[in-house]
Write a structure and sequence with these properties.
Main location: cytoplasm
EC number: 2.7.4.25
Bound molecules: adenosine-5'-diphosphate, cytidine-5'-diphosphate
Number of helices: 9
Mean pLDDT: 95
Largest sheet: 5 strands, parallel
GO cellular component, one term: cytoplasm
Shape: globular
CATH class: Alpha Beta
Family: Belongs to the cytidylate kinase family. Type 1 subfamily.
Number of strands: 5
Pfam families: Cytidylate_kin
Low-confidence stretches: none
Structural class: alpha/beta
């Protein structure tokens, strides 16, 4: 079974994707990490993430780079959303994601374009969202726990900027697939959100698509 989980920054899609992977015993890929790796590699080389040629040149990074803690920073997320605008970068990262989705037994992938581009044939698709204020509060708490000092207002500004860049780009914009189930987690805690996600996947499975 292939499960696609998409949604905007800090909506809780990674938390839900990991929980679904555990529940169904499936491997999980956080595809945002691939774009983060490219963004970080460009910055480390002293380059400009907005330059498509420079970003494309570092797309063939080793798999071990995905474990680098530097990929989790806000700067990495920002750089990721800049390199991910380039169609050549998306094309370069496509085969890796597609192969992961198509492995025997299935997989759970989370990102922005899993249900629309990477695995349009997924058995279950969730579009996870939450209000910008809820997402900013979550990301802010996460950053504070890691010792960060960015204000809630600044984090909210980052969220709006990332939403705009991800939703307005020409190549694989952030959009809910026609056949995806919407899961708004604004009023749900993690346990309730995961339960709802499992119920939605189960409904798809038993309706014959899975
Ligand atoms: N339903 C929820 N309620 C409260 N906090 C949540 C919820 N889902 C996720 N979180 C927390 O919000 C932060 C962002 O979640 P994450 O799953 O990493 O989001 P995303 O993958 O969409 O960026 C994490 O600290 C996570 O523990
Ligand atoms: N499948 C994907 C995954 C991420 N991305 C890009 O990579 C950036 C970082 O993604 P992420 O999922 O790691 O970020 P968060 O939602 O966790 O903050 C996003 O803002 C997108 O621009 C993408 O374009 N397509």
């Amino acid at each position: 079974m292939i499960i696609a989980v998409d949604g905007p920054a800090a909506s809780g899609k990674g938390t839900i994707a990991r929980a679904l992977a555990r529940h169904y015993g499936l491997p999980h890929l956080d595809t945002g990490l691939l774009y983060r790796a490219v963004g970080v590699a460009v910055m480390r080389a002293g380059g400009d993430p907005a330059d498509p040629a420079q970003a494309l040149a570092v797309c063939d990074f080793p798999a071990e780079m995905l474990a680098d803690p530097a990929l989790r920073s806000e700067e990495a997320g920002r750089a990721a959303s800049i390199v991910s605008v380039h169609e050549a970068v998306r094309d370069a990262l496509f085969a890796r994601q597609r192969a992961f989705a198509r492995q025997p037994g299935g997989a759970v992938l989370d990102g922005r374009d899993i249900g629309t581009v990477i695995a349009p044939d997924a058995d279950a698709k969730l579009f996870v969202t939450a209000s910008p204020a809820a997402r900013a509060a979550r990301r802010h708490a996460e950053l504070q726990a890691g010792g960060g000092t960015r204000s809630l207002e600044a984090v909210l500004g980052d969220i709006y900027a990332r939403d705009a860049r991800d939703s307005n780009r020409a190549a694989a914009p952030l959009v809910q697939a026609d056949d995806a189930d919407l899961l708004d987690t604004t009023e749900l805690g993690i346990t309730a959100a995961v339960q709802r996600a499992i119920a939605l996947v189960e409904a798809r499975r038993t309706s014959g698509r899975g």
